[in-house]
Every structure is written in C-alpha cells, then in structure tokens.
Specification:
Layout (H helix, E strand, L loop, with lengths): L8 H7 L4 H5 L2 H15 L4 E2 L6 H6 L3 E4 L3 E4 L6 H9 L9 H14 L4 E6 L1 H10 L7 H9 L1 H24 L4 E6 L7 H7 L1 H9 L7 E6 L6 H6 L4 E3 L6 H7 L6 E5 L8 H15 L5 E5 L9 H13 L1
Parallel strand pairs: 1-4, 4-5, 5-6, 6-7, 7-8, 8-9
Antiparallel strand pairs: 2-3
Helix pairs in contact: 1-3, 3-6, 5-9, 6-9, 7-8, 7-9, 8-9, 9-11, 14-15
C-alpha cells in the first residue's frame, strides 16, 4: 500500500521539517521515501510515494494537507461556476508534472529490476474532497451534488478524471511498470449510484494509460459490493480491502480477475501467532483467484512495528 513507509524511523527522519505536499513534489525526497520500504522489507515492488491530492496541487487548486486533519481546500467546489474555474486552470502539462516524472525516473533507476507501481486517486475521491472542502465521514455534500445537479457533478468528475489520468500517465511514461487507481471514498456509494455517477469518470482515468501496456489495479475501501463495477471500468487487477475474504471476492468476480489484498492492518499489532494464522488464511483464500498480489487490505498504521512487516513479507515469500 502507498503508506508502506510511514511506519519507518527512516521515513520520519527524511520527512522531518518537510510538509507532505512538499515532500511529494521534491523528486529526490519522494524517490528516497519510495525506496525505503523496499530496502527494509524486501517487498517485490515499490509504490510511488505520493498523495491523492497531489494532482490537484499541480493543477493549481488551493489545497494543503493539515497534520492531523488531512487535505483541506481553500474553498469548496459546489457550483457550475466553481467547476468552470477549475477548467480555467488549464491541463496538467509535462512542465507541471515534471517533479513527478523526475521522481519516478530517479526511483526506477535506483530500483533496478524491482518494478514500480504508479499511484493516483480516483475521480470520485478527488471530487469528494473538492466538494466537501476537506475530509468527511459520509461525503454528504458530494453525494447531494451528484443528485441535485448531475450535470455539474459530471463536469467535475470528468475534470478530476483528466487531471488524475494525466498524473498517472506521467508516472508510467517515466518508467512505472503498473498503475493503481485508489478510491478511498467510493465505499460511501451504493452500486447503482457508483455505476451511474462514478464509473464513467473512473473509466476515463484508467483509459489514460490504456495504450501504454501496463497492468491497471483498481482499489477502494468499503467497496465489497462494487467489485465487479470497479473491474469493469478497465481494471486488470481488483484490490480488495480487509472486509471481504478473497475467495468470496473471487466468486463475485467470476473467477476471472487477479486480486490484490487483503491482510487486515489491525492484526499487525496482534500477537505473532494470530497474525501468522491470518496471513496464511489470506494467502490460502487468494489461491482461488487466477492471480494474487499479497498486500494489506488498507494502509499501514503509522505505529506499526517495522519488524512485523518484514516478518510478514518473509512469511509470504516462504509460503
């Protein structure tokens, strides 16, 4: 998961005195943070260090990440005029994307034969942050706009798809071997609303790398009821969070999709015999699918003991 490094003391040392968005947009620092979990844990791939709102920042949106709060917008986006002002910011050009492209290129060079996974937030999650103005428990304002003004909602998610799609494409062009679209908030939606109001934008975002020959991973939290729809927007691999057993996810997907997941992050602090049994169960259930990327079912808690993560990787490799 993209937060793999944040439990590491070397991560905290590297980030000391540097704001999150500044760290993401400093190529050498973003590369170093990306490499740290690979060095420490011997995982089979790296995932580029970034944040969901980085493409918004690059596009010119007034956004900052406040410690202990999360992404906060200078002003919410809730009307057709607000969306028009976003469009006036112009596209994400190669010049704007240069810090990301440079960071990826540095990382790929340092990784050697270890592949790098590109990362971007899905349009719904970006749109939810923009409409709410910051983090939200239920994304009520975003879901209200979706129904109250569907034309404005469609224009907003289309813009978000183009921005995050350009962000993802830049990473692949710079050398990333796969691309992951991460939908943090899609679990707040039912299937009908996801299909009607979100899937077209997610498909548009994933289409941005469709011609580049890389596998596309689509992950969301709380999205057990949306897995088929999330695959059908153009994903090659479906990420499954910790809520749904992988054999059941495989059944719902018709046994045709490789899966990513889904060790429960909460168990990383459990006694080793409990965690080991859980990891073995996850791997056994994942064997039902045509492919399985063993991963957590959401992010690494910052307080996680790094040695536990290393031990989990060794266990999976041994299995």
């Amino acid at each position: 998961m993209r937060q793999a490094g944040r439990s590491l003391p070397e991560y905290r040392a590297a980030r000391a005195g540097t704001a999150m968005l500044e760290a993401c947009l400093t190529p050498e620092l973003a590369s170093e943070i990306t490499l740290q979990p690979v060095r420490r844990h011997d995982v089979d791939a790296a995932i580029f260090f970034s944040d969901i709102v980085v493409p918004l920042k690059l596009a010119g949106v007034d956004v900052e990440i406040k410690p202990g709060v999360g992404p906060v917008m200078g002003a919410p986006v809730r009307t057709a005029d607000d969306v028009a002002r976003l469009r006036d910011l112009g596209p994400l050009t190669a010049e704007r994307l240069a810090p990301v492209s440079e960071g990826v290129a540095l990382t790929v060079d340092a990784l050697g034969t270890t592949p790098l996974i590109g990362f971007a937030g899905a349009p719904f999650t970006l749109a939810a942050y923009l409409v709410e103005g910051g983090p939200s428990r239920d994304h009520l304002a975003a879901r209200t706009l979706m129904h109250a003004d569907p034309a404005t909602w469609a224009a907003l998610t289309e813009w978000a798809a183009d921005v995050t799609g350009a962000f993802l494409r830049a990473q692949v062009l710079a050398g990333a071997s796969a691309a992951q679209l991460f939908d943090s908030w899609a679990g707040s939606l039912g299937l009908a609303n996801y299909t009607a109001h979100v899937a077209p934008a997610s498909a548009r975002a994933l289409a941005s790398v469709a011609d580049l020959g890389v596998r596309k991973v689509h992950f969301g939290t709380g999205t057990s009821e949306l897995l088929v729809a999330m695959r059908d927007v153009g994903a090659d691999v479906v990420g499954v969070d910790y809520r749904l057993p992988l054999d059941e996810a495989n059944r719902r997907l018709g046994g045709s999709s490789p899966l990513q997941g889904n060790i429960d992050p909460a168990l990383l602090a459990a006694p080793w015999p409990v965690l080991e049994a859980h990891v073995r169960d996850v791997v056994a259930r994942g064997a039902a699918a045509p492919g399985h990327v063993v991963n957590l079912g959401h992010g690494v808690p910052p307080e996680t003991d790094p040695d536990v993560l290393t031990r989990v990787v060794r266990l999976v490799h041994a299995i």
